[in-house]
TrEMBL record:
Upper lineage: Bacteria, Pseudomonadati, Spirochaetota, Spirochaetia, Leptospirales
UniProt EC number: 2.4.1.227
GO CC, any one term: plasma membrane
Functional note: Cell wall formation. Catalyzes the transfer of a GlcNAc subunit on undecaprenyl-pyrophosphoryl-MurNAc-pentapeptide (lipid intermediate I) to form undecaprenyl-pyrophosphoryl-MurNAc-(pentapeptide)GlcNAc (lipid intermediate II).
Reactions mediated catalytically: di-trans,octa-cis-undecaprenyl diphospho-N-acetyl-alpha-D-muramoyl-L-alanyl-D-glutamyl-meso-2,6-diaminopimeloyl-D-alanyl-D-alanine + UDP-N-acetyl-alpha-D-glucosamine = di-trans,octa-cis-undecaprenyl diphospho-[N-acetyl-alpha-D-glucosaminyl-(1->4)]-N-acetyl-alpha-D-muramoyl-L-alanyl-D-glutamyl-meso-2,6-diaminopimeloyl-D-alanyl-D-alanine + UDP + H(+)
Record protein name field: UDP-N-acetylglucosamine--N-acetylmuramyl-(pentapeptide) pyrophosphoryl-undecaprenol N-acetylglucosamine transferase
Pathways involved: Cell wall biogenesis; peptidoglycan biosynthesis
UniProt KW keywords: Cell cycle, Cell division, Cell membrane, Cell shape, Cell wall biogenesis/degradation, Glycosyltransferase, Membrane, Peptidoglycan synthesis, Transferase
Keyword NADP attached: no
Originating organism: Leptospira semungkisensis
Taxonomy, superkingdom: Bacteria
Gene that specifies this protein: murG
Length: 358
């Protein structure tokens, strides 16, 4: 096989696992019989930290969103489509790996129309629209979670969401191994709203920290998002505030508990570190896939679910108060979280697609 192209397009949820998969393929090219590996992503993502650290060449494209100007869209789209196909032909691409999202469509169509191998990765419990369309053409599909209402004629496996090598823990410590009631008075809580932050999560936690009993029992570290850092810093001095971090492993190792959205990447990383979770799904995610992801983790005993409509801090207060009174609950959730993990997902997915026994 001459070359493999990974279509890791629009958002961080598609990009990070795509780069993780590229790491495994590049590291094991000979074993997989691959000469070249490429990543394919939107030009707007040139500053994405994962793509800046990509282990292979990134091929940039500017395919327009399908929600653009209805009169100009067909012409712009066809132009970018043909442009991408010419590039793929020059690169002698033999196989396409689609990570989902509209920006992967040019690569997926190329595989279908020109008879190339097509592999798909689906990160969420509810598959995205583009992947749903292309499932019927795929040679193999890898899922992060058991898919809902999905019937496939091709070979498929549940292998987890590929994680970057820098994020995979050397040793996952369960709650009971990180928190000693005799030595530590407070629980470390990591609060995350995603790379752009989440105002609602920030506001709930800021309100929560005004309760004296919470300050006594919990220590908070908040990844506010760059755009929201100043706003949060004016509201509270009771937490360690970080606008953005490219070293999540450090924060996961510090934490005893995570409060976060429920994108597949966050769930996969937290599970790899055996972290109990309180999840607040983003309610406007396509097909409400974040709620489905959160309910999967909740059903498996790894998380508590807090819905967006819970506007104030009262429900989160009750959840944390219960954890403080019964730390064994956190240990049980920690064990269940680790059971949901797939730390070798990147290599396992590469093996599955390219049939290597390494």
């Amino acid at each position: 096989m001459r070359s493999v192209l990974i279509a890791a397009g629009g958002t961080g949820g598609h990009i990070s696992p795509g780069v993780a998969l590229a790491e495994s393929l590049v590291e094991n090219k000979e074993a997989f019989g691959i000469q070249k590996v490429y990543l394919h992503s939107l030009i707007r993502n040139k500053d994405n930290p994962d793509l800046k650290q990509a282990p292979c060449e990134v091929v940039w494209h500017n395919t327009p969103s399908l929600s653009g100007n209805i009169l100009l869209l067909p012409f712009r789209y066809v132009f970018q489509l043909i442009r991408s196909w010419i590039t793929f032909s020059k690169l002698e691409v033999d196989a396409i790996i689609g990570m989902g999202g509209y920006s992967s469509v040019p690569a997926l169509l190329y595989a279908v129309l020109f008879g190339k191998k097509l592999y798909l990765c689906e990160q969420n419990c509810i598959p995205g629209k583009v992947n749903r369309i292309f499932f019927r053409f795929a040679d193999k599909v890898s899922f992060s979670f058991p898919p809902k209402d999905t019937k496939l004629s091709c070979q498929w496996e549940i292998l987890g969401n590929p994680l970057r090598s820098k994020t995979v823990p050397k040793l996952a410590l369960k709650f009971s191994e990180k928190w000693d009631p005799k030595k530590k008075k407070q629980f470390n809580v990591l609060v995350m709203g995603g790379s752009q932050g989440a105002r609602q999560i920030n506001n709930i936690v800021v309100s929560l920290m005004k309760h004296e009993v919470i300050q006594e029992r919990f220590r908070f570290r908040m990844l506010t998002g760059t755009a929201l850092y100043d706003e949060v810093s004016k509201k509270t001095k009771a937490a360690d505030l970080i606008s953005y971090s490219d070293n999540m492993a450090e924060h996961y190792e510090w934490a005893n508990l995570v409060v976060a959205r429920s994108g597949s990447g966050v769930l996969s990383e937290c599970a790899a570190y055996a972290l109990p979770m309180v999840l607040i799904p983003y309610p406007f995610a396509k097909d409400d896939h974040q709620t489905a992801n959160a309910k999967y983790m909740e059903a498996n005993g790894a998380a508590a679910l807090l819905e967006q409509r819970d506007e104030d801090e009262s429900k989160l207060f009750r959840i944390l108060d219960e954890f403080a009174e019964n730390p064994e609950l956190l240990n049980e959730m920690s064990i269940k979280s680790l059971e949901c993990s797939h730390v070798e997902a990147s290599l396992e997915t590469a093996r599955f697609f390219f049939e290597s026994k390494i």
